[in-house]
Write a structure and sequence with these properties.
This protein is of the alpha+beta class and about 450 residues long. The protein is built from 13 helices and twelve strands. Helices cover about 45% and strands about 15% of the residues. Strands 8-4-10-9 form a four-stranded antiparallel sheet. It has a three-stranded antiparallel sheet with strand order 2-1-12.
């Protein structure tokens, strides 16, 4: 689903372009500042402070980072840049209704807008890569984190909301063989039509693919092997003829056919069509009954929840971890209630530690399919002020972010001192974030 986007009217000012700042030998023009201000407003992004102070300083800092990227030969992965640009453009199309309306809104051809967004994302990516390069050595030891925590004022110690640890056993309903054969027959028919020149792959993808890429004609954007699951990569990266369609590929997401668009070194761009076998209510109910029987055996002490998770669960992310779920946002086993899948959150909200839920159906968001699960509430930690004992992982994150911010700020201010900068008349009456601009 496309992200929500709040639109404001683009800024249209008939101004004679002027040089607002100079950083090194790079000018920053008023038109650049106006353009970025318009872009930020179109995305609904808030600006803390006067935009005619914040934006030029932001552009000036970008130029410092971009210069460093040239020195260090840092180049962002073009496939990732193109993918993010496509997603941004698709968000505009979804919110405004069509490419033509996007062109009318931004008062420029779609191709020009795409080029502008690609440049902007490439710059953002490059800046982040330089920052990561500067801060890659930051790692908080227990002693570092303890010293950091001890010097925090009481008001600076974060409040940690209620958190839970949850274990899960998941089984996937059995899909009838006929349903799978029907899916494969549909994909074979589509592949034959493309191979015979009777239909275009992208048209069929728009009409039939059940993947989010359908809106782009199934196009995935340039990427390396590691972006895809191995079953997909092994077939896709062996394609050489853009006019031909791959054999049917089965992955955890469903069944695919793939078409090569272009290869560039170790990256490639593909189209694919994904069809997912449908699960009937009868299949779901049979799976639920099976898992509920397993739950009763656990409660009867025939085996433990952890043993059942290891030998029965079909959730590859947790079965070898005693069923314990890991929070993808933090890397820890603790979840705030809002971070859990909603179906699980509703169950564990009223459970006590050690208690098991009934078997229930939920949507596996990653796979976009219905599964049946039983969950166990492993622990519940009430909301509290963070402590080193209970929240070391959080405090370690805070310490490392603090150190990274210091390193980046020190680097920027040293660069400002060693770089020629000139702020034009009318642009220098600001309180800037970084020291040293006013000389």
């Amino acid at each position: 689903m496309a992200a929500a986007c709040v639109f404001a009217a683009p800024i249209k000012k008939n101004v004679v372009d002027e040089v607002a700042w100079i950083v090194g030998d790079e000018p920053i023009f008023r038109s650049e500042i106006e353009e970025q201000y318009s872009q930020l407003r179109s995305e609904g992004s808030s600006i803390q402070g006067d935009p005619y102070c914040v934006i030029p300083e932001r552009l000036a800092v970008e130029k410092l980072f971009l210069h460093q990227a040239k020195v260090d030969t840092i180049v962002p992965p073009e496939g990732n840049v193109q993918n993010q640009a496509e997603q941004r453009l698709q968000m505009f199309v979804n919110n405004l209704g069509s490419k033509e309306k996007v062109e009318e809104y931004f008062n420029k051809p779609f191709s020009s807008l795409k080029e502008q967004i690609v440049d902007m994302i490439r710059t953002q990516y490059t800046v982040e890569m330089v920052k990561n390069n500067l801060t890659k050595g930051v790692k908080g030891t227990p002693n570092d984190v303890r010293k950091y925590y001890d010097q925090l004022s009481a008001d600076s110690i974060p409040y940690v909301p209620l958190q839970v640890e949850v274990q899960i056993i998941q089984i996937n309903p059995v899909i009838p063989a006929q349903e799978i054969e029907d899916i494969k027959a549909r994909l074979r028919e589509m592949a034959d039509r493309v191979n015979k020149g009777e239909a275009s792959f992208s048209t069929l993808a728009i009409a039939y693919s059940e993947d989010g890429s359908a809106r782009q004609g199934g196009e995935l954007g340039f990427a390396g092997r590691s972006r895809f699951v191995p079953e997909f990569s092994n077939v896709a990266f062996n394609l050489n003829d853009p006019k031909k369609v791959s054999r049917i590929v089965e992955t955890e997401y469903g069944y695919h056919i793939i078409q090569l668009i272009e290869k560039r070194g170790d990256q490639a761009n593909f189209r694919h069509i994904l069809l997912r076998p449908k699960v009937s209510e009868k299949d779901l109910e049979q799976a639920r009954v099976r898992l509920d029987s397993l739950r009763k055996e656990i409660l009867a002490d025939k085996f433990t929840f952890e043993e059942a998770a290891q030998f029965v669960s079909q959730d590859k992310d947790t079965k070898n971890n005693k069923g314990l779920m890991v929070n993808p946002q933090t890397g820890s086993s603790r979840f705030e209630m809002s971070q859990l899948p909603p179906e699980i959150a509703r169950r564990v909200e009223s459970m006590e530690p050690g208690e098991l839920s009934d078997a229930f159906v939920m949507k596996d968001a990653a796979m976009n399919k219905d599964v049946v699960v039983v969950v166990k509430l492993a622990s519940r930690t009430p909301g509290h002020k963070a402590t080193l004992t209970d929240d070391f992982h959080l405090m370690k994150q805070m310490y490392e972010e603090y150190q990274k911010d210091r390193i980046v700020t020190d680097w920027i201010e040293k660069k400002i001192k060693s770089t020629y900068t000139k702020i034009g008349d009318g642009w220098d009456g600001c309180e800037f974030q970084y020291k040293g601009w006013k000389k």
